Amino acid sequence: MNILHLCPDFNYADGRSYYVFLLLKYLNRNGHNVFLYTNDGDSFERLNDEKISFFTHKQLSSRTSFIKSVSLISGFVKKNNIDIIHSHHRYYELIAGAVSSFNRNKIKTVFTALSIVEKRYGIEYRSDKIIAVSNSVKQMLIEKFKINESRIVSISNFADSEEIDTINTYNQEKQQNSKNQIELLAIGRFHKDKDFATLLNAIRNLKNNNIHLNLIGEGPEETLYKKLISKYSLKAELISPKKNLKKYFQNADICILPSIIDPFPGFMLQSGLYNKPFIGSDVDGISELIVNGNNGLLFMRQDQDDLSLKIREFINNSELAKKCAENLHFEVTGKYTEKTIIPLIEKVYHNLKIDIIKP
Protein backbone atom coordinates (compact mmCIF):
# COMPACT_ATOMS: atom_id res chain seq x y z
CA MET A 1 0.00 0.00 0.00
CA ASN A 2 1.25 3.51 -0.82
CA ILE A 3 0.79 5.88 2.12
CA LEU A 4 1.68 9.57 2.34
CA HIS A 5 2.08 11.14 5.78
CA LEU A 6 1.72 14.89 6.21
CA CYS A 7 3.24 16.45 9.31
CA PRO A 8 4.65 19.92 10.14
CA ASP A 9 7.97 20.65 11.87
CA PHE A 10 9.54 17.19 11.96
CA ASN A 11 11.70 17.79 15.04
CA TYR A 12 13.29 15.73 17.80
CA ALA A 13 11.59 17.86 20.47
CA ASP A 14 8.10 17.21 19.14
CA GLY A 15 6.01 14.27 20.39
CA ARG A 16 3.94 14.32 17.20
CA SER A 17 7.08 13.86 15.11
CA TYR A 18 8.15 10.91 17.26
CA TYR A 19 4.75 9.30 16.72
CA VAL A 20 4.92 9.86 12.96
CA PHE A 21 8.46 8.51 12.81
CA LEU A 22 7.40 5.28 14.54
CA LEU A 23 4.53 4.86 12.09
CA LEU A 24 6.85 5.38 9.12
CA LYS A 25 9.51 3.10 10.56
CA TYR A 26 7.32 0.08 11.18
CA LEU A 27 4.97 0.48 8.23
CA ASN A 28 8.05 0.63 6.02
CA ARG A 29 9.44 -2.53 7.61
CA ASN A 30 6.10 -4.24 7.04
CA GLY A 31 6.40 -3.70 3.31
CA HIS A 32 4.28 -0.57 2.76
CA ASN A 33 5.55 2.25 0.55
CA VAL A 34 5.56 5.18 2.95
CA PHE A 35 6.46 8.81 2.33
CA LEU A 36 6.66 11.91 4.50
CA TYR A 37 5.94 15.43 3.29
CA THR A 38 6.69 18.25 5.72
CA ASN A 39 7.70 21.88 5.80
CA ASP A 40 10.94 21.55 7.76
CA GLY A 41 12.61 19.84 10.72
CA ASP A 42 15.81 18.81 12.47
CA SER A 43 15.30 15.04 12.72
CA PHE A 44 15.54 13.72 9.15
CA GLU A 45 18.62 11.69 10.08
CA ARG A 46 16.45 9.01 11.66
CA LEU A 47 14.45 8.73 8.42
CA ASN A 48 17.65 8.28 6.46
CA ASP A 49 18.68 5.53 8.87
CA GLU A 50 15.47 3.66 8.01
CA LYS A 51 15.71 4.48 4.28
CA ILE A 52 12.35 6.29 4.34
CA SER A 53 11.57 8.76 1.57
CA PHE A 54 10.79 12.28 2.73
CA PHE A 55 10.20 15.60 1.01
CA THR A 56 10.12 19.17 2.28
CA HIS A 57 8.52 22.37 1.09
CA LYS A 58 9.05 25.48 3.17
CA GLN A 59 5.65 26.97 2.31
CA LEU A 60 3.64 23.86 3.17
CA SER A 61 2.58 25.32 6.54
CA SER A 62 1.79 28.77 5.12
CA ARG A 63 -1.93 29.53 5.01
CA THR A 64 -1.33 31.97 2.17
CA SER A 65 0.11 29.15 0.05
CA PHE A 66 -2.81 26.75 0.51
CA ILE A 67 -3.65 26.41 -3.20
CA LYS A 68 0.01 25.88 -4.10
CA SER A 69 0.34 23.27 -1.35
CA VAL A 70 -2.75 21.39 -2.53
CA SER A 71 -1.40 21.43 -6.09
CA LEU A 72 2.00 20.22 -4.90
CA ILE A 73 0.59 17.33 -2.88
CA SER A 74 -1.89 16.43 -5.63
CA GLY A 75 0.96 16.07 -8.08
CA PHE A 76 2.91 13.94 -5.63
CA VAL A 77 -0.13 11.73 -4.96
CA LYS A 78 -0.66 11.14 -8.69
CA LYS A 79 3.00 10.47 -9.42
CA ASN A 80 3.38 7.94 -6.59
CA ASN A 81 -0.04 6.26 -6.85
CA ILE A 82 -0.87 7.12 -3.25
CA ASP A 83 -3.76 5.15 -1.75
CA ILE A 84 -4.06 6.93 1.60
CA ILE A 85 -3.04 10.32 2.97
CA HIS A 86 -2.48 10.22 6.72
CA SER A 87 -2.24 13.69 8.28
CA HIS A 88 -1.17 14.68 11.79
CA HIS A 89 -2.12 18.36 12.09
CA ARG A 90 -5.44 20.11 11.48
CA TYR A 91 -4.16 22.40 8.73
CA TYR A 92 -2.43 19.50 7.02
CA GLU A 93 -5.67 17.55 7.28
CA LEU A 94 -7.33 20.39 5.36
CA ILE A 95 -4.74 19.99 2.60
CA ALA A 96 -5.31 16.21 2.56
CA GLY A 97 -9.06 16.69 2.27
CA ALA A 98 -8.71 19.09 -0.65
CA VAL A 99 -6.40 16.67 -2.46
CA SER A 100 -8.90 13.85 -1.91
CA SER A 101 -11.75 15.99 -3.27
CA PHE A 102 -9.78 16.82 -6.42
CA ASN A 103 -9.32 13.09 -6.91
CA ARG A 104 -13.06 12.45 -6.55
CA ASN A 105 -12.49 10.95 -3.09
CA LYS A 106 -10.56 8.02 -4.54
CA ILE A 107 -7.73 8.91 -2.17
CA LYS A 108 -8.80 8.00 1.36
CA THR A 109 -7.80 10.16 4.30
CA VAL A 110 -6.83 9.37 7.87
CA PHE A 111 -6.15 11.88 10.63
CA THR A 112 -4.51 11.19 13.98
CA ALA A 113 -5.86 13.44 16.73
CA LEU A 114 -2.86 13.76 19.03
CA SER A 115 -3.95 16.87 20.90
CA ILE A 116 -6.71 18.18 23.11
CA VAL A 117 -7.57 21.52 21.52
CA GLU A 118 -9.73 24.48 22.46
CA LYS A 119 -10.10 26.53 19.29
CA ARG A 120 -12.61 25.41 16.67
CA TYR A 121 -12.40 26.33 12.99
CA GLY A 122 -15.40 24.41 11.69
CA ILE A 123 -13.41 22.74 8.90
CA GLU A 124 -11.36 20.20 10.86
CA TYR A 125 -11.83 16.48 11.50
CA ARG A 126 -13.29 15.75 8.07
CA SER A 127 -11.09 12.74 7.29
CA ASP A 128 -12.59 9.36 6.41
CA LYS A 129 -11.23 7.96 9.67
CA ILE A 130 -9.96 9.77 12.75
CA ILE A 131 -7.59 8.02 15.13
CA ALA A 132 -7.97 9.14 18.76
CA VAL A 133 -4.87 8.38 20.84
CA SER A 134 -6.75 8.34 24.15
CA ASN A 135 -10.24 8.31 25.64
CA SER A 136 -9.80 11.98 26.50
CA VAL A 137 -9.22 12.82 22.85
CA LYS A 138 -12.15 10.67 21.75
CA GLN A 139 -14.50 12.42 24.17
CA MET A 140 -13.28 15.80 22.95
CA LEU A 141 -14.04 14.83 19.35
CA ILE A 142 -17.53 13.61 20.22
CA GLU A 143 -18.61 16.23 22.75
CA LYS A 144 -16.92 19.39 21.51
CA PHE A 145 -16.66 18.81 17.77
CA LYS A 146 -19.76 16.59 17.38
CA ILE A 147 -17.87 13.95 15.39
CA ASN A 148 -19.88 10.81 14.68
CA GLU A 149 -18.41 8.02 16.77
CA SER A 150 -18.47 5.67 13.77
CA ARG A 151 -15.67 7.72 12.16
CA ILE A 152 -13.44 7.51 15.24
CA VAL A 153 -11.01 4.67 15.90
CA SER A 154 -9.36 4.49 19.32
CA ILE A 155 -5.69 3.55 18.88
CA SER A 156 -3.34 4.80 21.56
CA ASN A 157 -0.02 6.54 21.28
CA PHE A 158 2.86 4.07 21.58
CA ALA A 159 6.55 3.57 22.29
CA ASP A 160 9.33 1.84 20.37
CA SER A 161 10.38 -1.46 21.93
CA GLU A 162 13.70 -1.27 20.08
CA GLU A 163 14.78 1.56 22.36
CA ILE A 164 15.71 -1.07 24.91
CA ASP A 165 17.90 -4.02 24.02
CA THR A 166 16.71 -6.21 26.87
CA ILE A 167 14.10 -6.07 29.61
CA ASN A 168 16.01 -4.53 32.50
CA THR A 169 15.14 -4.90 36.13
CA TYR A 170 14.45 -1.71 38.05
CA ASN A 171 17.50 0.56 38.19
CA GLN A 172 19.81 -2.15 36.87
CA GLU A 173 21.31 0.18 34.30
CA LYS A 174 21.57 3.19 36.65
CA GLN A 175 24.99 4.73 36.27
CA GLN A 176 26.26 5.32 39.78
CA ASN A 177 28.15 8.50 40.59
CA SER A 178 30.32 9.46 43.51
CA LYS A 179 27.82 11.96 44.93
CA ASN A 180 24.87 9.54 44.86
CA GLN A 181 22.67 12.17 43.26
CA ILE A 182 18.96 11.58 42.83
CA GLU A 183 18.49 11.95 39.09
CA LEU A 184 15.18 13.35 37.87
CA LEU A 185 14.28 13.33 34.19
CA ALA A 186 11.66 15.39 32.33
CA ILE A 187 11.26 15.58 28.56
CA GLY A 188 8.93 17.70 26.43
CA ARG A 189 8.42 20.99 24.65
CA PHE A 190 9.24 24.04 26.74
CA HIS A 191 5.65 25.22 26.53
CA LYS A 192 3.13 26.38 29.12
CA ASP A 193 1.06 23.24 28.58
CA LYS A 194 3.94 21.09 29.88
CA ASP A 195 4.33 23.35 32.94
CA PHE A 196 7.92 22.51 33.81
CA ALA A 197 7.96 25.67 35.93
CA THR A 198 5.88 23.78 38.51
CA LEU A 199 8.51 21.01 38.52
CA LEU A 200 11.34 23.49 39.09
CA ASN A 201 9.43 25.12 41.94
CA ALA A 202 8.70 21.70 43.45
CA ILE A 203 12.42 20.87 43.44
CA ARG A 204 13.12 24.19 45.17
CA ASN A 205 10.58 23.30 47.87
CA LEU A 206 12.36 20.02 48.60
CA LYS A 207 15.60 21.77 49.59
CA ASN A 208 17.55 18.62 48.82
CA ASN A 209 21.03 19.30 47.44
CA ASN A 210 21.32 15.75 46.15
CA ILE A 211 18.56 16.24 43.57
CA HIS A 212 19.63 16.83 39.98
CA LEU A 213 17.25 17.39 37.07
CA ASN A 214 17.83 16.78 33.37
CA LEU A 215 15.18 18.76 31.50
CA ILE A 216 15.26 17.95 27.79
CA GLY A 217 13.46 20.02 25.18
CA GLU A 218 13.20 23.42 23.57
CA GLY A 219 10.57 26.11 23.19
CA PRO A 220 9.30 29.54 24.26
CA GLU A 221 9.50 28.89 28.02
CA GLU A 222 13.24 28.24 28.01
CA THR A 223 14.11 31.75 29.25
CA LEU A 224 11.73 31.37 32.20
CA TYR A 225 13.25 28.02 33.16
CA LYS A 226 16.76 29.44 33.04
CA LYS A 227 15.70 32.28 35.34
CA LEU A 228 14.14 29.89 37.86
CA ILE A 229 17.21 27.65 37.85
CA SER A 230 19.50 30.61 38.40
CA LYS A 231 17.29 32.35 40.96
CA TYR A 232 16.99 29.30 43.20
CA SER A 233 20.43 27.80 42.46
CA LEU A 234 18.89 24.53 41.37
CA LYS A 235 20.92 21.58 40.14
CA ALA A 236 19.10 21.43 36.86
CA GLU A 237 20.42 21.17 33.33
CA LEU A 238 18.50 22.23 30.22
CA ILE A 239 19.42 19.88 27.37
CA SER A 240 18.59 20.35 23.71
CA PRO A 241 16.68 17.52 21.98
CA LYS A 242 18.79 14.63 20.75
CA LYS A 243 18.39 11.62 18.51
CA ASN A 244 19.24 9.12 21.24
CA LEU A 245 18.07 9.72 24.82
CA LYS A 246 18.79 6.23 26.09
CA LYS A 247 21.54 7.26 28.50
CA TYR A 248 19.28 9.83 30.16
CA PHE A 249 16.54 7.27 30.73
CA GLN A 250 18.99 4.67 32.01
CA ASN A 251 20.51 7.11 34.48
CA ALA A 252 17.16 8.44 35.78
CA ASP A 253 15.80 7.57 39.21
CA ILE A 254 12.40 9.22 38.62
CA CYS A 255 10.66 10.48 35.47
CA ILE A 256 8.26 13.41 35.88
CA LEU A 257 5.70 15.09 33.62
CA PRO A 258 3.77 18.03 35.14
CA SER A 259 1.52 18.82 32.16
CA ILE A 260 -1.60 20.97 32.39
CA ILE A 261 -3.00 19.28 29.26
CA ASP A 262 -1.73 16.01 27.82
CA PRO A 263 -3.68 13.48 25.74
CA PHE A 264 -1.46 10.38 26.12
CA PRO A 265 2.20 11.44 26.31
CA GLY A 266 4.98 9.46 24.69
CA PHE A 267 7.36 10.37 27.53
CA MET A 268 5.08 8.56 29.98
CA LEU A 269 5.20 5.46 27.79
CA GLN A 270 8.98 5.68 27.37
CA SER A 271 9.36 5.92 31.15
CA GLY A 272 7.48 2.65 31.44
CA LEU A 273 9.48 1.14 28.61
CA TYR A 274 12.71 1.90 30.48
CA ASN A 275 11.28 0.60 33.77
CA LYS A 276 11.45 3.93 35.59
CA PRO A 277 9.18 5.26 38.36
CA PHE A 278 6.87 7.87 36.86
CA ILE A 279 5.11 10.88 38.40
CA GLY A 280 2.52 12.73 36.35
CA SER A 281 -0.18 15.35 36.80
CA ASP A 282 -3.76 14.13 37.20
CA VAL A 283 -4.83 15.19 33.71
CA ASP A 284 -6.32 13.66 30.57
CA GLY A 285 -4.40 10.71 29.16
CA ILE A 286 -1.90 10.59 32.02
CA SER A 287 -4.60 9.66 34.52
CA GLU A 288 -6.05 7.17 32.03
CA LEU A 289 -2.94 5.02 32.38
CA ILE A 290 -1.41 5.93 35.74
CA VAL A 291 -3.14 4.51 38.82
CA ASN A 292 -1.78 6.34 41.84
CA GLY A 293 0.38 4.08 43.98
CA ASN A 294 0.13 1.15 41.56
CA ASN A 295 2.09 2.03 38.40
CA GLY A 296 3.11 5.57 39.24
CA LEU A 297 2.13 8.60 41.28
CA LEU A 298 -0.30 11.37 40.36
CA PHE A 299 -0.24 14.92 41.73
CA MET A 300 -2.75 17.73 41.40
CA ARG A 301 -2.00 19.76 38.29
CA GLN A 302 -0.10 23.02 38.87
CA ASP A 303 0.34 22.16 42.57
CA GLN A 304 4.05 22.39 43.29
CA ASP A 305 3.60 21.37 46.94
CA ASP A 306 1.78 18.18 45.98
CA LEU A 307 4.45 17.39 43.40
CA SER A 308 7.14 17.89 46.06
CA LEU A 309 5.35 15.38 48.27
CA LYS A 310 5.16 12.83 45.47
CA ILE A 311 8.86 13.18 44.64
CA ARG A 312 9.72 12.76 48.30
CA GLU A 313 7.46 9.71 48.48
CA PHE A 314 9.44 7.89 45.79
CA ILE A 315 12.77 8.98 47.25
CA ASN A 316 11.87 7.70 50.72
CA ASN A 317 10.11 4.50 49.61
CA SER A 318 12.27 2.51 47.22
CA GLU A 319 9.90 -0.48 47.34
CA LEU A 320 7.00 1.66 46.16
CA ALA A 321 9.17 3.13 43.40
CA LYS A 322 10.22 -0.35 42.30
CA LYS A 323 6.66 -1.67 42.28
CA CYS A 324 5.34 1.28 40.27
CA ALA A 325 8.19 1.08 37.77
CA GLU A 326 7.74 -2.63 37.17
CA ASN A 327 3.96 -2.40 36.88
CA LEU A 328 4.17 0.43 34.34
CA HIS A 329 6.84 -1.45 32.41
CA PHE A 330 4.58 -4.52 32.25
CA GLU A 331 1.66 -2.46 30.91
CA VAL A 332 3.63 -0.49 28.35
CA THR A 333 5.50 -3.49 26.92
CA GLY A 334 2.28 -5.50 26.80
CA LYS A 335 -0.10 -2.93 25.32
CA TYR A 336 1.64 0.20 24.07
CA THR A 337 4.44 -0.65 21.66
CA GLU A 338 4.58 -1.05 17.90
CA LYS A 339 3.90 -4.77 18.30
CA THR A 340 0.27 -4.11 19.25
CA ILE A 341 -0.39 -0.69 17.70
CA ILE A 342 0.94 -1.02 14.14
CA PRO A 343 -1.41 -3.92 13.24
CA LEU A 344 -4.35 -1.74 14.36
CA ILE A 345 -3.18 1.11 12.11
CA GLU A 346 -2.78 -1.31 9.23
CA LYS A 347 -6.34 -2.54 9.77
CA VAL A 348 -7.64 1.03 9.39
CA TYR A 349 -5.73 1.37 6.11
CA HIS A 350 -6.91 -2.03 4.87
CA ASN A 351 -10.56 -1.25 5.52
CA LEU A 352 -10.27 2.07 3.70
CA LYS A 353 -8.51 0.37 0.80
CA ILE A 354 -11.45 -2.03 0.49
CA ASP A 355 -13.76 0.99 0.29
CA ILE A 356 -11.68 2.37 -2.60
CA ILE A 357 -12.02 -0.76 -4.74
CA LYS A 358 -15.72 -1.34 -4.08
CA PRO A 359 -17.80 -0.83 -7.26
Topology overview:
Elements (H helix, E strand, L loop, with lengths): L1 E5 L8 H15 L3 E6 L6 H5 L3 E4 L9 H14 L4 E4 L2 H13 L5 E6 L15 E4 L2 H9 L8 E3 L27 E6 L8 H11 L4 E6 L5 H10 L4 E4 L6 H6 L2 E4 L8 H8 L4 E4 L2 H6 L7 E3 L4 H13 L1 H18 L2 H20 L2
Parallel strand pairs: 1-2, 1-4, 2-3, 4-5, 5-6, 6-7, 8-9, 8-11, 9-10, 11-12, 12-13
Helix pairs in contact: 3-4, 6-7, 6-11, 9-12
Structure description:
The protein is elongated. It is an alpha/beta fold and 359 residues long. The strands form two sheets. A seven-stranded parallel β-sheet has the order 3-2-1-4-5-6-7, with helices on both faces. Strands 10-9-8-11-12-13 form a six-stranded parallel β-sheet, sandwiched between helices. The chain contains 13 helices and 13 strands. Mean pLDDT is 93; it is low at 169-173. The longest helix is centred in the last third of the chain and has 20 residues, at 338-357.
Brief descriptors of the model:
359 residues, alpha/beta, 7-stranded parallel sheet, 13 strands
Short description:
This protein has 359 residues and is of the alpha/beta class. 41% of the residues lie in helices and 16% in strands.
Q: What's the shape?
A: elongated
Radius of gyration in whole Å, from Cα? Answer: 21 Å
Poorly predicted regions are 169-173
Beta content? 15-25%
The helix-and-strand class reads alpha/beta
Q: Roughly how many Å apart are the termini?
A: 19 Å
Instruction: Count every helix, treating DSSP H or I runs of 4 or more residues as helices.
Output: 13
Question: What letter string, H or E per element, gives the SSE order?
Answer: EHEHEHEHEEHEEHEHEHEHEHEHHH
Q: Main sheet, how many strands, which sense, barrel? A: 7 strands, parallel
Strand tally: 13
Order of the strands making up the biggest sheet: 3-2-1-4-5-6-7
Q: Report helical residue fraction.
A: 40-55%
Task: Give the integer mean of the pLDDT values.
Answer: 93
